Amino acid sequence: MRSARFNLLIDLNGTCHIGDTPTLGAVQAIQRLRAVQQQQPDRVNIRFCSNTSKESSSSLLSRLRRVGLGAELVGSSGVFTSLDAAYRLVARQKLRPLLLLSQSAQTAFRGDDTLARDCFFAHADLDPERLDAQNAAKLRSCDAVVVGLCPELMTSKWLDEAFRLLAGEYDAKQSVALITTHRALYHRPTQDGPLSLGPGAFVAALEAASGRQVSETIVCGKPQPAFLQECVAGMIGADESMSDFTNIIVGDDIVADLGQGTWQLGLRRVLVRTGKYRNGDESRGDRAADETHDSLASWVDHFIANDLNPK
Question: Its GO CC terms (predicted)?
């Protein structure tokens, strides 16, 4: 009888680390997973799938190194982010977006000169009401609004510009897409700090004000099925499918990490009580988590003992 095989999709911020601080035992837990993977390479695939959209992939990797997650634990090819997915969507559809993204996140869109020419890069120090004629025309011709985690741009002036585009204030005949890296309503920026609003709160406001349905908004990250399927596809062979594996996703947000798309695809959903977790989250959302553990480290112990080496 063939041993069970596993694809592990592990969240980063809130699960492996919070800001520049690792969650308790996370580094050692990932070391144990990598050791198991080396011993049984055909049984365990690992990928880190993140809705992080406040910083570029290179900045995120630098943060992971500071946390203690070296390249041997989390390599660049092993990280898949919603920001990467948003970039690919804009490039594929040749959109002209207003980017309400942090300066770090915007670097993903500056690498391609052709794409960059079609983007309007919002900036906290730039007043949209004081643009010259050329830049004002470029802003008002945008056919998409991309929203990520960027508190400094969630101001009345920039949100007004996004709303005016979406509502057809500048061109009633032009269809403007609303794109978000994810719909998380809040996040925890630091280990001991309070919760802060996430991009989902501002996306909901733009939807309500512009009169569009939630289903019309394009969500690039978790828990969208397309994001998860692409993440898994990068771990398995061309002649394999998701159904050949037990697919497990681990995160600290019952909705943004473990929401509808995860159970539609049949993923086993593991909630950890770190990061943005709050008491009672196990039962919030569309469906309760399949498992709940105190931390990534405690789940890894359980996984190795009960899934990889069942008695």
Answer: cytoplasm
Burial label, 260 (beta-carbon count in 10 A; 0-12, 13-18, 19+):
middle
Confirm if 45 and 7 have CB atoms less than 8 A apart: yes
Burial of 205 (0-12, 13-18, 19+ CB in 10 A): middle
CA–CA distance, 255 with 250 (Å, rounded to integer): 12
Cβ atoms of 223 and 261 closer than 8 Å: yes
CATH number at residue 195: 3.40.50.1000
Q: Which of 198, 219, 240 is the last residue of a domain?
A: 219
**Number of structural domains the chain divides into:** 2
Structural tokens at position 132: 């010259």
Six token digits for residue 20: 């520049």
Per the document, the length of the chain is 311
Residue 187: domain span: 83-219
Joined together, the tokens standing for residue 58 give 């290179």
Mean pLDDT of 20-35: 97
pTM as predicted: 0.86
